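Team,

Forwarding the record for the chain on the shared tracking sheet. I've put the sequence and predicted structure together so nobody has to dig through attachments.
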Amino acid sequence: MNIMLKRITIILLFSFLFVLAGCGKSDAEREQLEIKAQEIVRCFDEKDYKSLKILFSERTLLDAPNIDEQIQLAFDAYEGKSTSYRFSYLGMDGSQVDGVWTDQHTIVKINSLKTDYQKTYVISYTEYLVYNDDKRVVGIIGMSLRDENNNVLAVIG
């Protein structure tokens, strides 16, 4: 009986550590995504074209030759400076080989983005963190700015 109790305790301990290890990685990923979302909001607030553009993947920059105009249209549609927002993302998706991501991407939403002009926006974007088939895909591949009624104001990428 004592040996069985030890085995169960060891199994539960390893299960608990496995869950904690997974949560830590997820928390780190979420933190990195939140930092990127903060940077995007800052770019919109300050109309920082160069800093926003470098967040996009090399592939997107090649495939969207008018990205400069798209960014300008988004900045023109965005009024004021942010006062609050909510961050959310749909978790990671993609594929793994032997537990290593070969394709890892996510969709991020900056919801209820309120500005000092009493405007409310949603900025959503898709970002590849890993894409082994073509490293030029890594980065943001598309972004949209919507109003509080979910009307598209601008699309980048």
